[in-house]
């Protein structure tokens, strides 16, 4: 009898332990792919498009997504230091970064969502709306250019600075002639007030301007850019991006390190899905997957007023 009592007691203990453990796991996981809340960190140059995506996602599902904006360098560091779980960035992880995650026993889920353009802008008083990429690279290499008084970036650690440094193959930006602020809006404002300055911004800030930025856009020109191996000038438009003609294009990604099927996965799947890609298309950027169109063929034309 005592033997059966011990067995029964052991079974009850195991059951209670399993229940407590399950309860603990449930308390830790506060979100699912379509429900709950999460904070994501977004490259500041991509804020307008992600704000639109979040608004549509929240209107569709019982979810709340908080947006924090940081420079590219900061958000990647936060991801590696586990200060954030989901980021939206203008580049894939490097080989070295992937190795770091491997050492941390973390497998990031990387979802491509579209293609963005780095736009070059100038003051409206500058009648020349054409610029050669070589001129910008020469300036980044400290050689100077008579047409450029200065280059204006949003942040020394931003994705646009890293992008232009990679193109120019330089480790540091020139000590003179390069200005940096905190946001793309500040760059646009500075260029709108200063002739001869070339601003470097994410094109999404121009295609989907906020009310304050919209007032400034009438005072600037978006420049057409000639690539390094091309004689023609191209614009940061969906068409020139799709035809691989615009020389300052960059791919966009959502990187998720949640480690479970949570809201980060749900949001990434949404943005990469049909509705999310239509939002990208409407924003002026190039979707990773072109949304399909259904064409209805009718045998006869009917009068809708009947």
What does this protein look like?
Helices cover 40% and strands 23% of the residues. β10 (224-226) and β11 (233-234) form a beta hairpin. The longest helix has 27 residues, at 2-28. The protein folds into 2 domains: 35-115 and 251-287, 3-Layer(aba) Sandwich (D-Maltodextrin-Binding Protein, domain 2), CATH 3.40.190; 116-249, Periplasmic binding protein-like II (D-Maltodextrin-Binding Protein, domain 2, 3-Layer(aba) Sandwich). The protein has helices spanning 2-28, 47-60, 72-80, 95-103, 133-140, 159-168, 184-193, 204-207, 211-217, 238-242, 263-272, 274-283; strands spanning 35-43, 62-70, 86-89, 109-123, 130-132, 150-153, 178-180, 197-202, 220-222, 224-226, 233-234, 249-256, 286-287. It is an alpha/beta fold. Strands 1, 2, 3, 4, 6, 7, 8, 9, 12 and 13 form a 10-stranded mixed sheet that branches. Strands 5-10-11 form a 3-stranded mixed sheet.
Task: Give the name of the CATH architecture of the largest domain.
Answer: 3-Layer(aba) Sandwich
Largest sheet: 10 strands, mixed
Low-confidence stretches: 1-27
Please give the radius of gyration in angstroms.
25 Å
What does the overall shape look like?
globular
Q: What's the CATH class of the largest domain, please?
A: Alpha Beta
Order of helices and strands: HEHEHEHEEHEHEHEHHEEEHEHHE
* Measured distance between first and last alpha carbons: 86 Å
Topology, number of strands: 13
CATH topology of the largest domain: D-Maltodextrin-Binding Protein, domain 2
Helix segment count? 12
Number of domains: 2
The averaged pLDDT comes out at 87
The percent range for helix content is: 40-55%
Strand content: 15-25%
CATH homologous superfamily placement of the largest domain: Periplasmic binding protein-like II
Class by SSE composition: alpha/beta
């Amino acid at each position: 009898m005592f033997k059966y009592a011990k067995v029964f007691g052991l079974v009850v203990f195991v059951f209670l332990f399993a229940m407590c453990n399950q309860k603990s796991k449930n308390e830790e996981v506060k979100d699912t792919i379509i429900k709950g809340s999460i904070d994501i960190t977004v490259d500041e140059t991509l804020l307008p498009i992600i704000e639109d995506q979040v608004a549509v996602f929240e209107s569709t599902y019982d979810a709340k997504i908080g947006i924090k904006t940081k420079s590219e360098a900061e958000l990647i560091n936060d991801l590696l230091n586990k200060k954030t779980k989901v980021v939206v960035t203008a580049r894939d992880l490097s080989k070295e970064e992937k190795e770091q995650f491997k050492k941390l026993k973390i497998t990031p889920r990387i979802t491509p969502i579209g293609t963005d353009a780095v736009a070059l802008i100038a003051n409206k008083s500058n009648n020349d709306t054409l610029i050669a990429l070589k001129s910008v690279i020469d300036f980044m290499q400290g050689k100077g250019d008579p047409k450029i008084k200065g280059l204006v970036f949003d942040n020394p650690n931003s994705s646009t600075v890293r992008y232009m440094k990679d193109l120019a193959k330089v480790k540091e930006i020139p000590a003179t002639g390069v200005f940096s602020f905190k946001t793309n809006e500040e760059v646009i404002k500075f260029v709108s007030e200063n002739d001869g300055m070339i601003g470097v911004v994410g094109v999404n800030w121009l295609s989907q301007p906020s009310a304050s930025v919209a007032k400034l856009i009438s005072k600037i020109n978006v420049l057409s850019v000639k690539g390094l191996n091309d004689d023609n000038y191209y614009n940061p438009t969906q068409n020139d991006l799709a035809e691989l003609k615009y020389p300052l294009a960059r791919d966009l990604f959502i990187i998720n390190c949640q480690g479970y099927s949570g809201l980060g996965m749900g949001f990434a799947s949404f943005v990469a899905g049909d509705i999310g890609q239509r939002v990208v298309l409407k924003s002026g950027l190039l979707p990773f997957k072109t949304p399909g169109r259904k064409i209805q063929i009718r045998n006869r034309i009917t009068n809708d007023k009947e």
